[in-house]
Amino acid sequence: MKLASFRGDSGIGWGAVENEVVVPLDSVWPDIRQGIAAGLPAIKRAVESTVMRLPVDALRWLPPVPVPGKILCVGLNYGRHIRETGRELPRYPSLFVRFADSFVGHGASIIRPWASHKFDFEGELAVVIGKAGRHIARDDALAHVAGYTCLAENSVRDFQKHNAQVTPGKNFAGSGSMGPWMVTSDEIPDPSALTLQTRLNGMEVQMGELSDLIFPIPELIAYISTFTPLSPGDVIATGTPEGVGSMRAPPLFMKQGDVLELTISGIGRLSNPVVDEPQANQHTSRKVL
Question: pTM to 2 decimals?
Fold first, then answer.
């Protein structure tokens, strides 16, 4: 089952995607986080009892979970990506957080900030938590997953490297994207079998296999839930494979007019045009770096 959030004529809603229509479920649960918490069997029953259908072409996609309680991202989690950076394999996952307003939905424009031209692409698989938990055992971890979605994490590389904390380079407003929907975990019993492809203007720039993760999804959930409780709707971005623009010679960064596409087997395609942030938003006289 595909679950998505959207903006329509009557405002923000969510529901189940079936071919070219969406079965709205916000009359049952006001937001997708509450629906996820109710569980997949309850969602399926609600879909069967709902008559209304909304045409997909009348909706604008939002990130599947528009306002997660937590967005936790993993850096340097693919073996081949580690090798291209010349670093040693980490002992523990490298984690940072992102703000909800740093992501847009499928089809919306991602924004290259006026403060930097080093706007890099990063295609990733994201995990959406469905069952709350703390100190989750690795063997039980996948039972806490509601589903999976495409996530273009993207980075503003110079701001990422201003100091030891990557937060600035990872949280520019509208710099990332997520969606179009999440595919429920019952349709993806083994996420390590998935493959990921990132294309920029039709050219393949990243190809990765989830089996190349240094810290697989169950291990990530177990580690993260050791220090923070996980709740329905929380999102974990699992890292990006090799091929990022900053590691190329010469570097390849995104610019206005580009189109970034991320395809993950079994999930779908996330596509977003790139636009420049309007100079009218500039509040300082600092020059572009």
Answer: 0.94
* Residue 235 near residue 162, CB atoms below 8 Å: no
Contact criterion met (CB below 8 Å) for 275 and 113: no
Give me 154's structure tokens: 């993207």
The enclosing H or E element of 224 equals: helix 217-227
289 confidence band (pLDDT: 50, 70, 90): very low
List the structure tokens of 61.
Answer: 């996609």
The tokens describing 140, both together, are: 């039980």
Q: Within this chain, do residues 273 and 155 fall inside the same structural domain, yes or no?
A: yes
What do you get for the CA distance between the two ends of the chain, in Å?
44
- Domain annotation covers residue 285: no
Count how many domains the chain has.
2
Interval 147-178: pLDDT, tens? 999 999 999 999 999 998 999 999 999 999 99
Q: How many CB atoms lie within 10 A of CB 187?
A: 12
Q: Which two tokens stand for residue 204?
A: 């393949």
